[in-house]
Amino acid sequence: MATAIANGVRLHYEVYGPEGAPALLFTHGAGWDHRQWLPQVEPFCRDYRVILWDVRFHGRSGCCDLVELDDFSRDQVALLDHLGIERAVLIGCSMGGHISLRTAILHPERVAALVLMGTPVTSAYNWRNRLAITLQARSLKRFFSELIDVSLQGFSFFFYGLTLRFASMEKIARMHAKGLSLFHPELEEYFYRVTVQQPKERWNLIWEIACRMETLADLPKVTCPTMVLEGDAEWMMRRQHRFICEAIPQACHRLIDGAGHATNLDNPEAVNGCIDGFLREAQIFNMK
Question: Which helix (H) or strand (E) holds 251?
Fold first, then answer.
């Protein structure tokens, strides 16, 4: 991997493909690293310049004080500057999707298009908001469905909060690895290794940062072509994806069979096909 110094932090990255080709910048989720995107390298590196990187606090990148949450997006732009890239398609999953969204809002001239998976846009949409909206729709079926969903998510987040506080990194890593490898058990080793290497304090910091990310009100500012890829088993971000598609005028939505939160790893063939089709049909780089 190569290294760039951006905003006072060391960023590790890998580049594949022709130097002058259109650029695709892939950003991983919270707690993961650049290896999340290895299934996307070979399919795209012939026609595109493929860039993988470790977000600060992750992988082989450095750690430093985070002044603002948008420092992540500033790191993205600084990496593009370092590589001499004016515009890129930003492809992100989970926290990486949120970082990419923020970059499209703050630096629209640098973003040719967005591809988002498992991407949160708010943590402020609480159970009162959700139930009130369903009551306004006057649908008992939708109300009770929402109530069950709220209850299950509330229990899950409460349980996970206790786990972060009291469990060892070994137990947290095992839990994450099991939950994220349901479709492909062979991925369990990757998710375990990438998690267990984190010190407990840094892991808690990463999740505290992820839970403070907020973009809902700024979504209409996104003007570039946007595609949301959603695993058919992605329950955590389904509602968040709906917000994105409703608020961004040029957003389209594609459902990925046999995939959960780690959408690109669960079904890389379908994800790669959707990305390739999106880039060509939207004529992002005037490619046929």
Answer: strand 251-256
Question: Is 68 buried (19+), middle (13-18) or exposed (0-12) by CB count in 10 A?
Answer: exposed
Alpha-carbon gap, residue 230 to 263, rounded angstroms: 7
Res 33: pLDDT: 96
Number of structural domains found in the chain: 2
Boundaries of domain holding 183: 127-207
> What is the rounded CA–CA span in Å between residue 112 and residue 24?
9
At 99-127, the pLDDT tens digits run 999 999 999 999 999 999 999 998 765 55
- Is residue 286 domain-resident? no
The structure's pTM equals 0.87
Whether residue 134 sits in one domain with residue 231: no
Domain end point (choices 156, 185, 207) = 207
Q: How many CA atoms lie within 13 A of 4 on its CB side?
A: 22
Same-domain status, 90 and 188: no
Q: Going edge to edge, which strands form the sheet with 226-231?
A: 2-6, 9-16, 49-53, 23-27, 88-93, 111-117, 226-231, 251-256
**Do 150 and 259 have their domain in common?**
no
